[in-house]
């Protein structure tokens, strides 16, 4: 099993990222990779293990939109600290940033001969982000999904844990891999493994606390719309208290939340964080209003986030260790990327010494 996934290092890591993706990264890491004594051996550079997790900061993706260089640099170090604080273990998983592994950008170009304009034109994220001003967007925003395909195909990923909003990009990665495998082969063998998206059955799309029809997002201008993993307890309680709701009590059945998106979102968050089903949570709170539910949700979040934000703050103070984690991860990633890239050059008939 080869698990690969990424996150843009822009803005804060929020509860949507955590429940939709990062928590599953940690679970997959804990399920499939070695621990204990094996860890030291792997870190010492033994042969590539059969099961491997690679998690990265999509810093090359982040330049597809206007950005402030100093903020991107700081964001990359903060996101590294946040991922480790959430439980990504840089000894067991390969944790790195794209910019230190040039093979990502290299493979993107090589795949650009296979990706079709029509496929990219249909991407909903492109349509949403570009809006009516397509002509004014960067080329990188348009070809963003080709880089994303390169990110996973480079490592022959088998599983890609992501939230719901990345599903279409991963389908595109599969289409690109399939077309490339059909059109070219390296020494008679297909070049790419087709990656499977892993989208969690609950919490795959956490919504904004201010609008139950909009995704919780790093780019929402209102900080009240999201819970950041670094928020202190008072901030978490205040954001939950101010979260948009309705005056009705909670129903006993999930069907009763069908046209109450904000209420459904808070119940979903509670259930996901407590690792219970939404039905079970409604069973406990049926008939109660948000005056009772919100403080319970706030307490649950504070308790869950406390160890993460404490560790995050400690890690941020050790800048050298963060740099070292990324440098070590990048060296390991570059080694794994080499053979795929060689096959791609060979399959395309490109002469390289
Ligand atoms: P990004 O940085 O927007 O988000 C990182 C991960 O968090 C998930 N996520 C959510 N899940 C549930 N509810 C939400 N409100 C929510 N918001 C975000 C995302 O689905 C994602 O899994 N293009 C990607 C980064 C990327 C990538 C890749 C991912 C680049 N290359 C290769 C997987 C494989 C992105 O911008 O994610």
TrEMBL record:
Motif segment ('HIGH' region): 9-17
EC number(s) on file: 6.1.1.2
Motif 'KMSKS' region mapped to chain: 215-219
InterPro entries: aa-tRNA-synth_I_CS, aa-tRNA-synth_Ic, Rossmann-like_a/b/a_fold, Trp-tRNA-ligase, Trp-tRNA-ligase_bac-type, Trp-tRNA_synthetase
Subcellular location: Cytoplasm
Keywords: Aminoacyl-tRNA synthetase, ATP-binding, Cytoplasm, Ligase, Nucleotide-binding, Protein biosynthesis
Main EC class the enzyme belongs to: ligase
Function: Catalyzes the attachment of tryptophan to tRNA(Trp).
Family according to the record: Belongs to the class-I aminoacyl-tRNA synthetase family.
Name of the protein this chain belongs to: Tryptophan--tRNA ligase
Lineage of the species this protein comes from: Bacteria, Pseudomonadati, Pseudomonadota, Alphaproteobacteria, Sphingomonadales
Gene: trpS
